[in-house]
What does this fold into?
Amino acid sequence: EKAGFKHFMLKEIFEQPQAITNTVSGRVNPETGEVSLAEINLSAQECRNIDRIFLVACGTSWHAALVAKYWIERHAKIPVEVDIASEFRYRHLLIDERVLTITISQSGETADTLAGMRIARKMGSKAITICNVVGSTMTREADGTVYTHAGPEIGVASTKAFTSQLAALFLFTIFLGRHRGTIDLAKQQELAQALIGIPAIIEHHLPKIQEQVGALIEGYYDCRDFLFVGRGLSYPIALEGALKLKEISYIHAEGYASGELKHGPIALIDKEMPIVAMVPQDKVYHKTISNIEEIKARQGRLILIGSEGDSHLLTITDDVVWLPKIHEDMNPILYTIPAQLLAYEIATRRGCDVDQPRNLAKSVTVE
Ligand code: M6R
It folds into this structure.
C-alpha cells in the first residue's frame, strides 16, 4: 500500500501534485479564472460585509493560515488575524457577526480548533472550515466547508494535506477578492493560472529536488540544532521546515522570520550551526540576502533554497537547492517540498521511524 515507496511520508510527498490538482480541479474556470466553491455557503454579499477574518488552526495547519494571511490581505484587502487554536479559545476575543472565522484542519477533529470554532459561532461569527475529512466533526458543525481533496494522509507528519490546504486557501483568496472587487478579471486570471500550473511544476522538479537534498544531508544529518529562516511568504515555510525536522528526526530546530535574527537568535550562530534559508527572488529578496550575509559573517553553515540562475547564491555557499522561478504567490507551495524532503532524508539517515514518530498522534482530539 506504500506503492513502492519506503514510507507513507515519502509516498505522500510525491502525491502532492495529484492532491493539489484534485483540490483545484472543477473549482476554477481555466479561461476566466472564476472560482466556485460549492459547499462554502458564503454569498457575494456576505463576502463584501466581512470586515475581519480570523484564521484558527494548530501545528502545520497553523502554518497554512500564516501563508493565507499574506495572500488574503494582499488580494482581498481584509485584515486577517491568525491564531493558534489553543490560544484563541482562551483569549478575550473581539468577535461579532462581521467577522468570518476560518478553521483549518486536516482531520477536522482537533480538539482546540473545534472548540475555537464553537466559540466564534456563539459570538455571532460565521464559521468556515478548510478540511480534508468528509463528515468530520468540524465539517458537520461549520456553516460552510472548503474540502481539500488530498486523500487519506497516513504519515503523522503532514505533507500533502498542507500543500492542499494552501491550494484551497489560494482558491478562497481569489473567490473573496473577486466578490469584493479587489481583483480585476486580469488579476483573477493571472492568479488562477498560477495555481493551476503549480502541480505540473512540482511533478517535474520533485525527483531533482530529492536528489539535491539527498546529496546535501551527509554533512548535516548529525547536527544537534537547526535554524530555518524566511521572509514574507517564506516565513511560514521556515516554521514548517523546522516543525517537520523536529517532528520526525528529533533534531532541535527553530524557524524565524529572517529580520528577527538580529533580535536574539543570531547569538546562536557559530560554525557548528546549520541555517536553512529560503531565498526566492521575490519582493523581499534583497532584504533576505542582507540577513544571510550577516549569518555568513558569523560563519554559520548555510543551506540556501533559491531560484535557478541566481548565481549570487553561490558566492555565499555551495549548498544550494535550486528551484524554478515561478509566480511569487506560489512560492510557499513549491518551497515546502525541499523542506519536507530535508526532514525526511535526515530522519531516515538517522534511522528514525518517520511515519510513526515518538510521542505524536495523527489527530489530537484531547486538549
Ligand atoms: O488535523 P489538524 O490539521 O487539525 O492537525 C493539526 C496538527 O496537529 C498537525 O498539523 C500536526 O502539527 C502535524 N503532525 C504536523 O506535521
Residues 58-61, 105-107, 110, 113, 156-158, 247, 363-364 surround 5-amino-5-deoxy-1-O-phosphono-D-mannitol (CB under 6 Å). Strands lie at 52-57, 80-84, 99-105, 126-131, 144-147, 225-230, 252-257, 274-279, 301-307, 320-323. Residues 185-216 form the longest helix (32 residues).
